[in-house]
Amino acid sequence: MEEKKLFGTSGIRGKIGSEISSELALKIGKSLAKYLNNTGKVVIGYDTRTTNRMLEQAITAGLIEDGLDVIKIAMVPTPLVGYATLKLGADAGIMITASHNPSQYNGIKLWNENGMAYTPEQEERIEEIYYNEDFAKVEWDKIGIISYNDEIKKQYIDDLLEIVDIKPGLKVVVDCACGAGSELSPIIFRKAGCEVITLNSQVDGFFPARNPEPNEANLSSLMKAVVATGSDLGIAHDGDADRMITVDEKGNVSAFDKLLALVSKKFGGTVVTTVDAGLCMDEAMMEVGGKVLRTKVGDVNVADVIIKENANFGGEPSGTWLHPDFCMCPDGILSGLRMAEIVSKEGKLSKLLDSFNDYPNIREKVICSKEEKIAVMENMEELLSNSFDDISEINTIDGVRLSFNDGSWVLVRPSGTEDYVRITLEAKTEEKADKIKDTCIKIIKENI
Questions:
Q1: Do 277 and 386 share a structural domain?
Q2: Domain shared by 438 and 290, yes or no
Q3: Would the keyword ATP-binding be found if you checked this record's keyword annotation (predicted)?
Q4: Residue 262 half-sphere exposure, CB side, CA atoms within 13 Å?
Q5: What is the per-residue pLDDT for 3?
Q6: What would the pLDDT profile of 421-435 be if each residue is shown by its tens digit?
Q7: Angle CA(92)–CA(94)–CA(96) in degrees, nearest 5?
């Protein structure tokens, strides 16, 4: 019998109607209430999607019916939910978002009292309650209450401004994808001393300006705007602003791996990243006598290792960074501020990133349904290891990662949020990169 799963790599996510519904949200609310022993308070926020209020009302009903109080903070970036959960002393936080997915998707992500996402073990317990409908209603006079908190936004802004020191005069274009960062991110950059030009910062849950995923294919307007306005930096967020990518002063989208390596080098010590991060992380940390720890893909896995190892910083090569000196929730606004601080003090971003070695880097994805992903990955280690003869190491902590004798590597893993099997690789030559990619695509397609 196939194991029932609600949660992927980053919470619950799916298409409205077929996978995500008000009924699901109601039952998640009741499941969380049972998990928290039907007492306590929960912070709820949502991004700009048109289906958010529907899901917010349903999940709120499930929570208060089963005894929990709800603090609503309305439309906010995901990092503000993690921050508010911590600052308001709540027992949990809920963000209604599908992050970088298109507008027909939505989802639910849960946060601990310290602002860290729920772990896979916690999510499994929620799933168990959900599928068994092991709910526990309270008496009518114990039903939870709903309150509203607008002040937490100001406190979030003030605390962010305390943690960064941007040299005045930096010119920045901020592209919010019409998402949850649209109201706060430009304001925060202005208050931090930047000259800000806003782009796609009108709130619109249909994401009319661009797809909310912040990658080169979706950022042509930002790339042009940075050059046309003579700006020092472009900052792009995803739909819920827990991620960030930069565009340099020449209008080029920055390589995720290099950005992560640049900021990691500034923190020094121990940093945490995922199995899909590139070689420049290791090279950068070697320069400053630091150490890189790798874990499974997903911000919660990075957060877990940061806490266990008392690491200084952590992040994924997707623009999802965690700042343990602030909050354990990924924060695209703080990530952008920290990049602005570096550029304001150290000069042009293009030159800073050029200091890192360039290796051919490919990120490919093969369409594959949820059911097919399981079958495809079943013998992937054997299939890959039989296809290459210069393997130095095999890592199966998350998917299958092969390291080769010359330092090249490839990771094949099923997406936790979308219907793809992802191929991520880095090689010392273009020829080898193409060979690895073609071999992996062939293996996956032959086994779908």
A1: no
A2: no
A3: no
A4: 28
A5: 56
A6: 999 999 989 999 999
A7: 175
> pTM (2 decimals)?
0.91
Between β-strands 391-395 and 92-96, what pairing exists: parallel, antiparallel or unpaired?
A: unpaired
- Domain span holding position 410: 361-446
CATH number reported for the structural domain that contains residue 225 in this entry: 3.40.120.10
Residue from 354, 353, 322 nearest 338 by CA: 322
Task: Work out how many domains the chain is built from and give that number.
Answer: 3
| Tokens matching residue 89 | 């002393």
Long-range contacts for 387-392 (Cβ within 8 Å, ≥24 apart)?
387/439, 387/443, 388/436, 388/439
89 and 122, same domain (yes or no):
yes
* Catalytic (active site) residue 99: yes
Assigned token pair, 405: 């004798």
Helices marked H in 99-196: 120-132, 151-163, 185-191
136 and 174 in a single domain? The answer is no
CA–CA separation, 109 and 402 (whole Å): 31
**Residue 151 CB partners (closer than 8 Å, separation 6+):** none
Report yes or no on 2 lying in a domain.
no
Output b/e per residue, 326-354; b: 16+ Cβ within 10 A: bbbbbbbbbbbbbbbbbbbeeeebeebbe
Angstrom distance (rounded) from CA 13 to CA 212? 15
DSSP state of 289: T
Question: Distance between CA 357 and CA 105 in Å, rounded?
Answer: 37
The answer to whether 247 and 253 are in contact (CB under 8 A) is yes
Determine the angle formed by the axes of helices 332-346 and 256-267, rounding to 10 degrees.
70
Numbered residues of the known binding site for Mg(2+)? 99, 238, 240, 242
pLDDT one-digit tens code per residue, 75-119: 999 999 999 999 999 999 999 999 999 999 999 999 999 999 999
In this structure, the answer to whether residues 328 and 433 fall within a common structural domain is no
Closest CA to 188 of 223, 220, 163, 219: 163
Tally of CA atoms within 13 A in the half-sphere of 392 that contains its CB: 8
Length of the chain: 448
Model pLDDT for residues 146-205, shown as the tens digit of each residue: 999 999 999 999 999 999 999 999 999 999 999 999 999 999 999 999 999 999 999 999
Report if residue 140 sits inside a domain: yes
3-state class (DSSP) for residue 256: helix
Active-site residue among 10, 31, 99, 254?
99
